[in-house]
From TrEMBL:
GO biological process: proteolysis
Transmembrane recorded as keyword: yes
GO cellular component annotations of the record: membrane
Keywords noted in UniProt: Hydrolase, Membrane, Protease, Transmembrane, Transmembrane helix
Lineage: superkingdom: Bacteria
Domain Peptidase S54 rhomboid: 129-266
MF-aspect GO terms: serine-type endopeptidase activity
Statement: the UniProt record of this protein carries the keyword Membrane: yes
Topology with respect to the bilayer: Multi-pass membrane protein
Lineage of origin: Bacteria, Bacillati, Actinomycetota, Actinomycetes, Kitasatosporales
Official protein name in the record: Rhomboid family intramembrane serine protease
Transmembrane regions listed in the UniProt entry: 60-84, 147-165, 177-194, 200-217, 229-246, 252-269, 276-299
Source organism per UniProt: Streptomyces spinoverrucosus
């Protein structure tokens, strides 16, 4: 009778001889499967299980803490890519810019809306069912030589998004930050629809004004030194007033109001039912914007 072999092998690599055991599960592990622990070594599975059991750090509003503001980077990238698309195909602006109601003539040109129009004209905008314009317009900008600012339009907006977005994203967490950005953009588009439905508007300004409101609300919530924050807010409001003559101030104001409402719900929701209150506030704002949009479109049509 042959003596029983005393050779032990790694539980993940049966051909590799080893005599080291995981300090948690006591399984044999080879050097490739060893992970340093406070005492001895642990296997890969035990390390993963331990990581899952560690409570994740949260922001003051309940979002997961993230060291890198990847959503801000992604939003900047989307805006830049959309701008490159505009340069290649300028008709993208007419097709996807925010527009409540307009007409396309038989000559392919665009005309102001009127509810009674010739048979060879076709409606465009939200009255034609193009609901996507409420958000797609927030990712487009003026052409390099268009409007008052030209290429400075996207440069200034992306600089503001870079500056504000990184701070607000780290304060809110990624999911809440995305909700804030999209609802602010939507709020800006809806106010444009309500007050100036014939205007074709583009730009991320509504969403960025929403970030500005969020920056102010979060600073108050976190007990920050408000001197610099108040100066920033005054500058933002002055720009809102000054820009009335040559920008879509309706988008700015709509984004500011929506962003302030959303962030207040995030920041001051009671801790014991925080997620429910925050989600409910976002859903309520979204429902209000939808009702206002549908009502205005029905009135136009």
């Amino acid at each position: 009778m042959e003596p029983e072999s005393t050779v032990t092998t790694c539980y993940r690599h049966p051909k590799v001889e080893s005599y080291v055991r995981c300090t948690r599960c006591d399984r044999v592990i080879c050097p490739d499967c060893m992970r340093e622990a406070a005492v001895g070594h642990q296997c890969v599975e035990c390390v993963k299980e331990g990581a899952r059991s560690i409570r994740q750090a949260r922001t003051v509003v309940g979002g997961q803490v993230a060291a890198v503001p990847v959503v801000t980077y992604a939003l900047i990238a989307l805006n830049v890519l959309a701008y490159v698309g505009q340069l290649v195909r300028p008709e993208i602006v007419d097709r996807f810019g925010m527009l409540g109601a307009g007409l396309v003539g038989p000559d392919g040109l665009h005309y102001r809306w009127q509810d009674v129009y010739p048979a060879d004209f076709a409606p465009e905008g939200l009255v034609a069912g193009e609901w996507y314009r409420l958000l797609t317009g927030a990712f487009l900008h003026l052409s390099p030589t268009g409007g008052t600012f030209g290429i400075l339009h996207i440069v200034m907006n992306m600089a503001a998004l870079w500056s504000l977005g990184r701070t607000v994203e780290l304060q809110l967490g990624r999911v809440r930050y995305v909700a804030l950005y999209l609802l602010s953009a939507l709020g800006g588009s809806v106010l444009v629809l309500l007050l100036d439905p014939d205007a074709l508007t583009v730009g991320a300004s509504g969403a960025i004004f929403g970030l500005g409101a969020a920056y102010y609300v979060m600073a108050r919530r976190l007990g920050a030194n408000m001197n610099a924050v108040n100066r920033f807010m005054v500058t933002l409001l002055v720009w809102l007033v000054v820009s009335i003559g040559f920008t879509s101030w309706q988008a700015h104001l709509g984004g500011l109001l929506a962003g302030g409402v959303v962030t207040a719900a995030f920041a001051y929701a009671p801790r014991d039912r925080r997620t429910l209150v925050q989600a409910g506030a976002c859903a309520a704002l979204l429902a209000l914007l939808v009702v206002l949009t549908v009502g205005k479109v029905m009135a136009l049509a």
